[in-house]
C-alpha cells in the first residue's frame, strides 16, 4: 500500500513494539521505504496488508538482520542525510543491474516467494546486497564529503569494489564513481549537524555533492543522483 513517493509508504508496525507502547495491532507507520526492520524483535514488516502473514520472522534470515545492522553503522558514520544518499545510490545501482540472488540462497528465497509472493520477498532477498553496496559506497563518500578523499584513493576504489560485485555492476559502478569525484571542502560536518541551512549553502552543497537534502519521507528513488530507478506503478515499487 503506497501513499506516494514524497508522502511515504504505509507500513505495518511490529506488533510486539506496538504492544509495548499500548497500541493495538495492526498499527501502521508512515515511512520513506516500503519496509521496516525491527531489530529488537527480529521482524520484517512491509506495506502488504496480509493479515495471515503480517510480518516475516528474521530469526532464520540472519543475513537480513546483519544487513540492517550494517546500514545502521553507515548512518553512524555519515549521519542520516548522507547515509540516505549512499543507500539511494546503492538502490539505484541494484535496480539497474538486476542483482541476482546468491546461488546458495536461491532455494530459500524461492520457497519464501511461494508462500508470500515474489513481490514481497524480493526487497528482503536483496537487502543483503543493498547493505553491502551501501557500505562500499559509504567508504568513499565519508572521505569525499569531508574533503579528505585523495585522487589515488578515488582511483583505487573502483577496481577494488567492482571485483567484489562482478561484471553486472561494473558499468553502473563506474558511472557512480565518475559522478563522485574528490571534493575540496568539508560538507559532511554541515550535513551531519542537522542545522537548518541557508538556501545558498543548500544550493552550493547540492551542486557539489549532486544530492539534495531529503525530507524525512523522501523515497530512495527520489534521493539518488543516478538515473536508473524503476518508476512503474506503485505496487512495482516493492522492487529493488
Ligand atoms: Zn518490534
H/E order of the elements? EEHEEEEHHHHHHHH
Task: Give the low-pLDDT segments.
Answer: 231-240
> How many domain units?
1
Head-to-tail CA distance between termini: 16 Å
Largest sheet: 3 strands, antiparallel
Strands ordered across the widest β-sheet: 1-2-3
Shape: globular
Protein name: DNA-binding protein
Organism: Streptomyces cathayae
Topology:
Elements: E1 2-4, E2 8-12, H1 15-20, E3 28-31, E4 35-38, E5 43-46, E6 56-57, H2 62-97, H3 106-116, H4 118-125, H5 127-145, H6 151-165, H7 167-179, H8 188-193, H9 199-209
Antiparallel strand pairs: 1-2, 2-3, 4-5, 5-6
Bound molecules: zinc ion (ZN).
Would you give an account of this structure?
It comes from Streptomyces cathayae. This is DNA-binding protein. By secondary structure, this protein is mostly helical. It has one domain (62-238). It has nine helices and six strands, in the order E-E-H-E-E-E-E-H-H-H-H-H-H-H-H. It has helices spanning 15-20, 62-97, 106-116, 118-125, 127-145, 151-165, 167-179, 188-193, 199-209, and strands at residues 2-4, 8-12, 28-31, 35-38, 43-46, 56-57. A three-stranded antiparallel beta sheet has the order 1-2-3, with no helix packed on it. Helix 2 packs across helix 5 (127-145), helix 3 runs antiparallel to helix 4 and helix 6 (151-165) packs antiparallel against helix 7 (167-179). The longest helix is centred in the first third of the chain and has 36 residues, at 62-97. The radius of gyration is 18 Å and the shape is globular. The relative contact order is 0.16. Mean pLDDT is 89; it is low at 231-240. The structure holds zinc ion (ZN). Zinc ion binds at residues 14, 16-17, 38, 40-41, 43. Zinc ion is lined by residues 14, 16-17, 38, 40-41, 43.
